[in-house]
Fold this sequence. Notes:
InterPro entries: PCO/ADO, RmlC-like_jellyroll, RmlC_Cupin_sf. This is 2-aminoethanethiol dioxygenase. This protein is mainly beta. The protein is 4% helix and 40% strand.
Amino acid sequence: MQPAEPYPNLHRLQQLLDEVRAEDLHLAPQGPAPAAAGCPRAGAVPPVSYMHICETESFSMGVFLLRGGACIPLHDHPGMNGMLKVLYGTLRIACMDALPAAAAPPPPPAPGPCLRALLRSRQHYTPASPPCLLSPHSDNLHQIDAVDGPAAFLDILAPPYDPEHGRDCHYYRLLEGPPAGAEPALPREVWLLETAPAADFWCGGEPYPGPRVCP
């Protein structure tokens, strides 16, 4: 007897998400808008903006807009599953797995907590690509860069971030750079340093213009 699938509707959800296009959500490829009046950075164009669609105790759904060259720093999703579907533009996504501390060698000297991780992939995603998936144990850490202009993606997390239940977002950076010369082969193990996000990273907010979603 075959064991039951942990998420029997996952494949169907992937299929549905793969069909979503920017025009379905009334989005045009223009990147983030300037921060609204009354905000601490009013008038400034954020590198990233978020359009909230809906959130329940089980999942959250929204759209991230990135201006050309913007980066969402390397971060994690503790105990969470996720799907990311590019709506316009091109994203370069680096995905990593956290490795058990017991199996890791001693970390190099560092000014803060370190995490051993497996850098599994670094790929380009476009609207023609299937959704990028993450789970609690696979590809749970990722960095997202917009290349060749603005980009946007639909983001679904289940369950959503919730610091009170141990699902806070932690940011990291590579503790060591890649070896000199040719791009190193993947996958490869790396050390990550937990850190605050870069000073030039901040996320604005914009109204969602698409159809209403009822959870």
